[in-house]
């Protein structure tokens, strides 16, 4: 449901905040004959705010919190404790108790912004040229991984502090889990654990300008990285980029490698080529 709702909510918030920005600008700086415009810096801020609001709205709908109505009435109004408790009871009554991680990459004018909650990852594979000392000093080119996200695991110091402050505990059941149940500390839904510090606030990287050395952006679910590191993923892309021509085959290679290495979790990955030397289309594969 979250992916289906994302674009609707996101577009709503982009349009609303754009008009809000224009209206505020016209009131403060209006001069005869002057056109009101939204510059690039303002647009980046609008997109970031829209992303945060969109995740909140999806979580609200997923847990039947009904705060969408409040958003239309007053964008500065937040639900009271009574409203939250009432909506939680409604969600539990309707058995809306599951949850989901979320990761979003926005790309505009050569810059990207990543919003993440849970344990999916986003990374950039960047070209690095160096001398190979083990092979007679030959000049070699590799792809180096740079992670753009940090996993929200319950044993991370700041996440654990929030959980414990809310009355929850972090227990190791195979892996660290909130109250011995949930292996992530932020998620959409998971209504039973919201009172114990699990919430749907994404961690945002801030806008990052892509360089000419950045070749791929990769977004993957936790199953991809269960048996492989981010560097393993970039190595797969480097080793296979000249061997295949299918629009989805680079993503296929990553999924197949994760499966062969024994990953038993959801295997979903998106590969976005950034350079002309790479296939121009967005590559995607998923295996459950």
What can you tell me about this protein's structure?
Helix 1 crosses helix 2 and helix 6 (about 230-240) packs across helix 7. This protein is α+β, with helices and mostly antiparallel strands and about 290 residues long. It has three domains: about 1-100, no CATH class; about 100-150 and about 205-285, Phosphatase 2c, domain 1, CATH 3.60.40; about 155-200, no CATH class. The protein is globular and about 70 Å long. The strands form four sheets. It has a five-stranded antiparallel sheet with strand order 5-4-11-12-13. Strands 2, 3, 9 and 10 form a four-stranded antiparallel sheet that branches. About 35% of the residues lie in helices and about 25% in strands. It contains seven helices and 13 strands. Strand 2 and strand 3 (about 110-115) form a beta hairpin. This is PPM-type phosphatase domain-containing protein. One of its GO terms (molecular function) is protein serine/threonine phosphatase activity. One of its GO terms (biological process) is regulation of intracellular signal transduction. InterPro entries: PP2C, PPM-type-like_dom_sf, PPM-type_phosphatase-like_dom. Pfam families: PP2C (PF00481).
* Average residue pLDDT: 80
Put simply, the count of helices is: 7
Order of helices and strands: HHHHEEEEEHEEEEEEHHEE
Q: Mind summarizing the main beta sheet?
A: 5 strands, antiparallel
Give the termini distance in whole angstroms.
Answer: 17 Å
Name of the CATH architecture of the largest domain: 4-Layer Sandwich
> How many domains is the backbone divided into?
3
Organism: Solanum lycopersicum
Domain PPM-type phosphatase: 1-274
Pfam families: PP2C (PF00481)
Protein name: PPM-type phosphatase domain-containing protein
């Amino acid at each position: 449901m979250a992916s289906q709702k994302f674009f609707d909510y996101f577009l709503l918030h982009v349009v609303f905040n754009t008009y809000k920005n224009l209206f505020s600008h016209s009131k403060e700086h209006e001069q005869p004959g002057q056109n009101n415009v939204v510059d690039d810096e303002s647009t980046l801020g609008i997109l970031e705010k829209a992303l945060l609001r969109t995740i909140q709205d999806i979580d609200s709908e997923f847990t039947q919190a009904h705060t969408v109505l409040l958003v239309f009435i007053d964008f500065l109004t937040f639900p009271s404790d009574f409203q939250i408790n009432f909506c939680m009871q409604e969600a539990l009554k309707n058995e809306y108790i599951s949850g989901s991680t979320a990761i979003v990459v926005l790309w505009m004018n050569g810059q990207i912004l990543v919003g993440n909650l849970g344990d999916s990852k986003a990374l950039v594979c960047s070209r690095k040229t160096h001398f190979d000392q083990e092979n007679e000093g030959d000049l070699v080119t590799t792809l180096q991984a740079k992670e753009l996200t940090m996993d929200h695991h319950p044993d991370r110091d700041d996440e654990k502090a929030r959980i414990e402050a809310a009355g929850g505990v972090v227990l190791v059941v195979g892996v660290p889990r909130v109250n011995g149940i949930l292996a992530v500390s932020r998620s959409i839904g998971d209504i039973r654990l919201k009172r114990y510090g699990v919430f749907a606030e994404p961690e945002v990287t801030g806008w990052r300008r892509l360089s000419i050395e950045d070749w791929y952006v990769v977004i993957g679910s936790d199953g991809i990285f269960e048996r492989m590191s981010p560097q393993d993923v970039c190595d797969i892309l480097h080793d296979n980029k000249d061997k295949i021509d299918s629009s989805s085959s680079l993503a296929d290679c990553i999924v197949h490698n994760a499966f062969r290495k024994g990953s038993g979790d959801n295997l979903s990955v998106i590969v976005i080529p950034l350079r002309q030397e790479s296939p121009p289309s967005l590559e995607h594969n998923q295996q459950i």
